[in-house]
Amino acid sequence: MEQKTISSSRKRTGRKWYWLDWSWYHTSVSFIMLMIYTLKLFPACVRNGASSMARQTLVFEAVFSPILISAGRSNSILSYGVFGWVILCCSVFVFCLPETRGVTLSDTMDEQEEKEQLAM
Predict the structure, then answer these.
(1) Rounded to an integer, what distance in angstroms lies between the CA atom of residue 15 and that of residue 12?
(2) What does the domain layout of the chain look like in residue ranges?
(3) Contacts of 97 (CB under 8 A, 6+ apart)
(4) How far apart are CA 46 and CA 107, in angstroms?
(5) How buried is 5 (Cβ within 10 angstroms: 0-12 exposed, 13-18 middle, 19+ buried)?
(6) CA atoms within 13 A on the CB side of 25
(7) CA torsion sign, 40 to 43 to 44 to 49?
(8) To bridge 54 with a disulfide, which of 17, 20, 38, 75 should be the other Cys (CB 3.0-4.6 Å)?
(9) Which of 99, 101, 97, 80 shows the shortest CA–CA distance to 27?
(10) From CA 95, how far away is CA 102, in angstroms rounded?
(11) In sequence order, which residues have a C-beta less than 8 Å from that of residue 49 and are 6 or more positions away?
(12) H-type helices in 42-75, by residue range?
């Protein structure tokens, strides 16, 4: 009887590790894609500011992750739920970004407005 309890406990722990690895991987991929799009989408004159804001978002995540993990020790739904919602929101945002392959991007907003006016 005692062996069954240990075995089922290990299964639950294994599932938690699976979801932890899954969420870590997808969070990392979404933030990497967000950084790539941040560097690529913005014109040169605002790229540094946009990169700084994206970097600050990563630092913000690094500060609050340990807090959520420690809160998750008493209530695992809270920790996994918050991480899950963050992953979901980042994934939706990344999939809504436009494709920029083969498109020349303007360096300033004035150039972009001129391109748009000429296209109309």
Answers:
(1) 5
(2) 2-96+105-119
(3) 37, 41
(4) 9
(5) exposed
(6) 6
(7) negative
(8) 38
(9) 80
(10) 18
(11) none
(12) 44-72
Look at residues 108, 81, 93, 100 and name the one whose alpha carbon lies nearest to residue 57: 93
Residue 33: the pLDDT is 83
CB contact burial 83-120 (16+ within 10 A = b; e otherwise): beebbeebeeebeeeeeeeeeeeeeeeeeeeeeeeeee
- With a CB cutoff of 8 Å and minimum separation 6, the contacts of 68 are 78, 79, 82, 83
Q: Are 57 and 64 in contact (CB under 8 A)?
A: no
- Please report, in tens digits, the pLDDT of each residue of the chain (120 residues total): 455 555 555 566 777 788 888 888 888 888 788 778 777 777 777 778 878 887 887 788 788 888 877 887 888 788 778 878 888 988 898 888 888 788 877 777 788 888 889 887
Cβ(51)–Cβ(39) under 8 Å? yes
